[in-house]
Amino acid sequence: MLKDRRFLPACLIMTLFVTLLSCNGTGNSNSNPDPVLPETLYVDVIGTLPHDTSAFTQGFEIHDGILWESTGHYGYSTLRKLDPSNGSIIETYPLPDTLFGEGITIVNEKIYQLTWQSGLVLEWDIENPVMTISDTIETEGWGICSVSSSTVVTSNGSSTLSFRDITSFNTLRTINVNIDGGTIGLLNELEYAVGYIYANRYYSDYIYRIDPETGNVTALIDASSLLSGYNRINAGALNGIAWDPEREAFLLTGKNWPTVFIVTF
Ligand SMILES: [Ca+2]
After folding, report:
1. What percent of the chain has pLDDT over 70?
2. Is the pTM of the predicted complex or chain greater than 0.90?
3. Average pLDDT in the 134-149 region?
4. Cα–ligand 1 centroid distance for 191 (angstroms)
């Protein structure tokens, strides 16, 4: 299955990326009349934390000094409470074997966790994490972030991000993530910070900074320098973005990565 394919040759990634940009440069019909191509930013590592290499990371978020992580795979999916000062696991809350954990976000002291194909949205009280079923959604669940106390944004592996009412998970509106009209698919883990949505793209070492009103990508963040060749051997895709307001930095990790990187862009 798609979700189990952890590696794609770097040359193919670059080919897809270059093809996207070159198509937009040849005047395709979706191009804006005054294209504004995104700037490219690079990660500046200011610290590292250890990360459990058995964690198939699907969601990553900091709230009130706690780092929360969601992990996937049937039989191994969990919600985890971590110490962001040293990366240690404070508590692990397993999901039923029939559920494949995906993205998480925290709104009004509730943790909302997506599941991949069941359509179920799980809810955990942040003080006493016991799992209940909050709502259902009509698509696969991949990533989720909250943009206000009433609205969350979800991804489903396509280029579409859905803004949803937290009380029902009904879709309020959608945006099509694009660079000059060229859509950016395979959007996965999400994070909202300082007015922008940040998204991993599955298989890619890039993070996309997205205007939440238009879906336009305003910056490409090249995170390909994070893992050395040795550390990549058993590591999967980049798939954890958590904004740390105290450090004013992002914590980045990936599926089965040995390290959480504390970075600025
Ligand atoms: Ca996140």
Report:
1. 86
2. no
3. 97
4. 4
